[in-house]
Amino acid sequence: MGKELVQIEFETFIVSCSLLPESRNRLVAEALHWEADYMLWMDADHVFPCDALLRLLGRSKLVVGCNYARRFSPTSPTASILTGDKPDLVWTTKEKADANEIEEVSHFGLGLCLVDMRVYDLLDQKASEDGKKHFWPLFTIPAKPDGIGCIGEDVHYFRLIKEAGIPVYIDHGLSWEVGHLSDCILTNAHAEIQKDQWLEFCKQDKFKRD
User: Fold this and answer.
1) What is the pLDDT of residues 150-208, one digit of tens each?
2) Which structural domain, as residue segments, surrounds residue 96?
3) Cα(109)–Cα(170) distance, rounded to whole angstroms?
4) Which tens digits make up the pLDDT trace of 110-158?
5) CATH number of the domain encompassing residue 150
6) Which of 107, 106, 109, 79 lies closest to 91 in space, CA to CA?
7) What HEC string does 79-123 produce?
8) Domain tally for the chain?
9) Distance in angstroms (rounded) separating the CA atoms of residues 174 and 69
């Protein structure tokens, strides 16, 4: 049998909106309308290797993305694992990166993340089982129980995904090569070096960081 050629189509969706959750909701709606097979989240304030998409596709996961440094000083990674109600940060180390590890987490930042669009079929099924008409909004910024802080829109998104029984992964190898643009480009190398400073900062910070 001859090999059948597959034509790959790409479409870029850009939304201009002052509300980040609204922008992300509209981007998903655009991708669903276009009947995409995959959606690659790429925030404009990140740098990453040119083969990032191929490497994420190669992981063969419904949701897989990158852990990266926050734009704080001292900095820390965005990925966390929930232990009860408490988030514990997941650190992308040089050792994990060199081993090209992949790790299941509870949530991470959406700066670079590949989502198989079948995820939304599963979210729709979960909404129906829960007696809801639909799964929207995917992104919102709810208040924390203390009424002071807020939960990030990406954390809320991943909670919905996890509640639907879909695991979420980070690619440590690729994560090590992702940079977050600030006054300087922050990487996981900075986060690892500043880990003790970050933990000390959290002890003094009345607004607990996720």
Assistant:
1) 888 999 999 999 999 999 999 999 999 999 988 778 889 989 998 998 888 887 764 45
2) 20-203
3) 10
4) 999 999 999 999 999 999 999 999 999 999 998 888 888 888 899 999 9
5) 3.90.550.40
6) 79
7) CEEEECCEEEECCCCHHHHHCCCEEEECECCCCEEEEECHHHHHH
8) 1
9) 13
Q: What is the identity of the amino acid at 158?
A: F
DSSP sequence for 120-165: HHHHHHHHHHTT-S----S---PBPTTSSSB--HHHHHHHHHHHTT
Does 1 fall in a domain? no
| 114 CB-near residues (< 8 Å, 6+ apart) | 38, 39, 40, 41, 53, 56, 57, 63, 64, 65
Residue 145's identity, in one-letter code, is P
- Residue located via tokens 């670079």: 112
Nearest CA to 118 among 153, 162, 166? 166
Letter for the amino acid at 137? P
